[in-house]
Amino acid sequence: MTSIMPPEWIELIRKKFEKQVGLESTLFGHWMNTTRLGVEKKGEQYYRKAQEIFNNPCSMRILDAGCGDGSVALRFAIAGADVVGVDIDCEFIEIAQLHAKEEYPQISANFICADLCDRSVLKAADFDLIICIDVIEHVSSGTEYLENLKKLLRPNGKIWLFTPNRFALTNIIADPHYQLFGLTLLPNSWAEWYAVHGRRRTDKYEVTRLYSQSSLEKMVGSLDLMINYHTANDFDSAIKRYSWLKKIIKIPVMKTLAYYLYRNFWISTIEATINL
């Protein structure tokens, strides 16, 4: 029986992850599965969210600012959006280009290897929507990254940002990148030692800074940008789901306290839109 060879882009991502964490790592299988189903699961998830929040995202000029393997960018391109994906990791860009070529040759998506903290990249204010999914915690300077993205927005454009909440209980129990207890509470240099040498979870620690809502808000404000968290809508949905929460918020002052705890320590991922 003739075996079917996997697509070339899958082989490239396998080699990349094997080099980074090794075949025996529990992260290897998780990362591979996430990438294989990236367009259908991760891409679809964010595209559906965008349809709820933004007016007709499939007609937009979109920048995926830190596109990784290109899963999200490809899903928006499939829907008809004009998409540019940029990442500093040239291996990821090669994978995204191959993925598009091998499985979606009919779409319009351009993938570029570049550092978005570099002001010489993509100078024109040309985008209706800039997507930043779990990227800002990896860049060399969050301030320079956002400042450069600000210059790329059209007058009514928005930055749609996601980043792990540093002090969320679930992230303290198992951090979102390496699944290690307590990693998010450590100073970055200590966290790097813990992940690379202490627990030998990865050969390269790729987190530069983790944010809380307050630290992110302070940085955004320093750039004269406005930030709108989506936490309030999430909290309202939680109230409808949990009967115990409905009872608690009936007590005077408890709704304010419950929302504070929910916003700062329960939400595992900060989601926000940033406007000029």
Would you write up a description of this structure?
The protein has 276 residues and is of the alpha/beta class. It has a single domain, classed as 3-Layer(aba) Sandwich (Rossmann fold). It has twelve helices and seven strands. The chain has helices spanning 8-21, 26-36, 38-53, 71-78, 90-103, 142-151, 169-173, 188-198, 213-222, 231-241, 243-248, 254-266; strands at 61-65, 82-87, 109-113, 127-133, 153-164, 226-229, 269-275. A seven-stranded mixed sheet has the order 3-2-1-4-5-7-6, with helices on both faces. Helix 1 runs antiparallel to helix 2 (26-36), helix 2 (26-36) packs across helix 3 (38-53) and helix 3 (38-53) packs across helix 4 (71-78). It is globular, with a radius of gyration of 20 Å. The model has no long low-confidence stretch (mean pLDDT 91).
Span between termini: 59 Å
The major beta sheet can be summarized as: 7 strands, mixed
Shape: globular
Question: pLDDT average, as an integer?
Answer: 91
Q: Hey, roughly how much beta strand do the residues contain?
A: 15-25%
SSE-based structural type: alpha/beta
Strand order of the largest sheet: 3-2-1-4-5-7-6
CATH fold name, please?
Rossmann fold
- Low-confidence regions: none
Using only C-alpha atoms, the radius of gyration works out to 20 Å
CATH superfamily: Vaccinia Virus protein VP39
Which class in CATH terms? Alpha Beta
Number of strands: 7
So, CATH architecture?
3-Layer(aba) Sandwich
Supply the number of structural domains. Answer: 1
Order of helices and strands: HHHEHEHEEHEHHHEHHHE
